[in-house]
Design a protein that fits this description.
The structure is a homodimer of 454-residue chains.
Chain A (H helix, E strand, L loop, with lengths): L10 H5 L4 H5 L4 H4 L1 H4 L5 E2 L12 H14 L1 H4 L9 H12 L10 E4 L1 H13 L5 E6 L5 H7 L3 E8 L2 E2 L1 H13 L6 E4 L13 H14 L2 E5 L15 H5 L4 E6 L11 E4 L2 H15 L4 H12 L3 H26 L5 E2 L7 E5 L6 H10 L2 E2 L1 E2 L12 E5 L5 H26 L12 H4 L21
Parallel strand pairs in A: 1-12, 3-4, 3-6, 6-7, 7-8
Antiparallel strand pairs in A: 2-9, 4-5, 8-9, 10-11, 11-14, 13-14
Helix pairs in contact in A: 5-14, 8-13, 15-17
């Protein structure tokens, strides 16, 4: 404790020892901010934190006490790498709630959903191999893909999710170059970070492409049950029935990220390799977490809890959309998610959101700069805002502070260029004035600016 | 559930998609057996399961209820990648119990100790890079090293642990070949699987080599506090003070593997890279597990619990050594661990322990075949036996069954070769007849057969 920490242990001494992948490893934009955003005076709209404050502590206590009474020694012991059967039956139940039928043997329980992305990438990617992903894509997948030195090709999204017609073009081009993507990574429902949902037509198209071209797809579906309006879409997994679609599920957003429980469903040969990867990575997933969730599911309230979560999240989403309309300048555009945790805001081109974040932090508010959601340097004038992790008043205040910083930038630009680009904040055109309840497909979602894919 | 599982999803369809590392990934011998050894009629001396049945359930309940009362929302939420400060202070306390002084900022909390091995290897190893490890080495590290396509060079061990004088020769040879090892992996105390402990002289020598040659060392010390006789040895970390020694600790063996909590202490530049690797791998370690351990430590009984564990483990070790002396043939040799969980048995050369395991499983008893502890095909007539996971009667019966299968093989060999190599089981010469309490260095430990290193 008292030993002075040497400052001579500098990078130089060890740099020669690092793997080449280490040089490419960079921090996810989200995670870097954790330290700052843990300060109580900072309003963080950055993290992907679900609401956990409304989880009934008595339910946690009851589940834990049941473990103490019935299975303490087992909860404290190692378990099988693939996970406990008891938990797998909970997972079957969760997937059935989205109309998927799976067998416990088709899955491996993982240390959160993030580990699925890591293990799938580890299993399939050699340096230079191609992964197809939405643009923007989940910021937490960016360092994972980088750590295996993947070449990520982004496909633009619009209000109906990944633009699958562009995907065909990209695949043709790669084909001509003799490059075959190892897998397509997608978050079809309430995408992180864009908040958009893939239409049914595109889901069918995507599964069709996977079958025609024999391509694996990793469907990342943490938010499917967090729908605040409209009718559910079938998952890619349910359209594909498990031939080419690998499915990532997690308890993080429907129960708790702090217990670190996710799962992957994949074709048996792939699952077998993922299992080997998991053995090497962390032996097995927490037995205690698994038995705790089993005990919680036996209480029979897990769907009611999701319903209560969705009530809370819906109010927070609306608070965010209202605040954006009130406090963001007219040149800003944003998505209107029908579920999930995030709104994606696109500002005028002349604003760099990474620079903006530094100013925002001075105002004690945080967001995720858009470039963290791309591996090709795009996204520099976009930001991801989370509405699940703060209460409505806090969201409103956070958006107000960001809006102020944005307005300053707009005004500064106007002064510098002579253009008057700093109108008084006004309601953004589409999302708030034309709320269209119903299917996410039908909902009016502000389009991403369309760029050429790849 | 009712959908028939396709048998046409064969490996061929997906094989072309696997990464080259995937072809080299093989299952740890230990983990493969988990399914079999979970059958209640099987006596497993295979796994590295610590005793968890004696952990007081009321202590678990009290810790969990405190979380429910005080910090439920936080326990269920994401935490910082590097771990919670509260837990880091427990870790400082655990390391102080082995005379190590560390600062909370010097460490990252991980999903079990296994993740440390994975992250360190990921950070440092490019395909073909050299890792130095004991021979035999921890069987769970074997698939990890393989998954990063490391070239592992084994250094033989004897009763005083890694033969550090051979290490110098190997380093010289590698130097002549222009190859610099990225790190040296060692379990100095109560080695897994050999059960031997590195002498103080060799510890000093090893740290000296690391400094002279600027080589990183990963000291894996899960068992340091599980000493059943003799005086503690200083850790490599305490001799080095954190310049070249990275330290792996875990709560798995002193509390519970089911909570998946380990840690790594490393020089800041290395720690920073490990942190990036962890972000990509699983975002953060279970907040719930961390707060649970914090609450448990606040009960002030953690050292008493280890004392009680050591009482139990000591009795089990003695039961195993007695049973080996009684039931194993005279040609067998084994180590006499002063702590930890394992005994390493070496049988006559003509016995292949992987074949033997198949026979043993028919007698409902399991062990880890020795070849799982090498990456170069050695170890085929050795086995690892665990004494911490079964009670004394079960250990005795398990060893009796294995002894019988071994005796059959010895008799069969005698019949085939005409040699009489099947004497009646008798007490093995050294370990049981000359029990030497005291320092592991002084304890008579049967030597591994010595082979040329590398």
């Amino acid at each position: 404790m008292s030993r002075p920490r040497s400052t001579t242990r500098d990078l130089e001494r060890y740099a020669g020892l690092f793997a080449s992948r280490t040089r490419e490893m960079k921090s996810s934009a989200m995670r870097d901010m954790m330290a700052i955003t843990q300060r109580p005076d900072v309003i963080s709209l950055a993290g992907g934190l679900p609401e956990t404050g409304s989880f009934p502590p008595e339910s946690f206590a009851a589940a834990a006490n049941r473990i103490a009474d019935e299975s303490c020694a087992r909860a404290l012991q190692y378990g099988p790498t693939e996970g406990l059967d008891e938990l797998k039956h909970c997972i079957v139940e969760v997937m059935a709630a989205e109309d998927m039928r799976v067998h416990p043997e088709d899955m491996i329980v993982t240390t959160g959903g993030q580990q699925v992305i890591d293990l799938v990438t580890k299993t399939l990617i050699d340096p230079g191999d191609v992964i197809i992903a939405e643009g923007p894509t989940y910021p937490g997948a960016v360092p994972t893909f980088s750590s295996y030195q993947a070449d990520v090709v982004h496909i633009d999204v619009d209000s109906e999710g990944m633009r699958v017609e562009l995907l065909e073009d990209v695949l043709d081009r790669l084909d001509r170059e003799g490059r075959r993507p190892k897998f397509i990574y997608t978050v079809p429902s309430f995408q992180n970070p864009a908040g958009v949902t893939m239409s049914l037509a595109r889901r069918r198209q995507l599964v069709d492409i996977a079958h025609r071209r024999e391509l694996l797809v990793l469907e990342d579906n943490p938010y499917g049950l967090l729908r605040y309006e409209g009718a559910p879409q079938p998952t890619l997994r349910s359209l594909d029935e498990g031939v080419y679609v690998m499915y990532l599920g997690t308890f993080s957003k429907i129960l708790s990220p702090g217990i670190r429980l996710g799962w992957v469903v994949a074709p048996p040969p792939v699952l077998e390799k993922i299992n080997l990867g998991k053995q090497a990575a962390d032996l097995c997933t927490s037995t205690m977490s698994q038995l705790l969730v089993r005990a919680y599911f036996d209480q029979g309230i897990w769907r009611d809890y999701i319903d209560s979560l969705n009530e809370i999240h819906r109010g927070r989403r609306d608070a965010m959309l209202d605040a954006l309309a009130e406090f963001f300048p007219g040149q800003a555009e944003w998505t209107r998610p029908a579920g999930g945790l995030f709104v994606w805001v696109t500002l005028p081109d002349f604003i760099d959101t990474t620079d903006l974040l530094a100013r925002a932090l001075r105002e004690n508010v945080a967001f995720v700069p858009g470039e963290g959601a791309f591996l090709d340097g795009r996204g520099r004038s976009s930001m991801r805002l989370n509405f699940s992790g703060s209460d409505e008043d806090t969201i409103r205040e956070g958006v107000r502070r960001i809006g102020e910083v944005v307005a300053e930038q707009v005004a500064l630009y106007g002064t510098l260029t002579g253009e008057d680009r700093a109108p008084a904040p006004k309601r953004a055109p589409a999302p708030a004035e034309e709320p269209q309840p119903g299917d996410a497909k039908g909902a009016r979602v502000l389009p991403m600016r369309r760029r050429r894919a790849g």
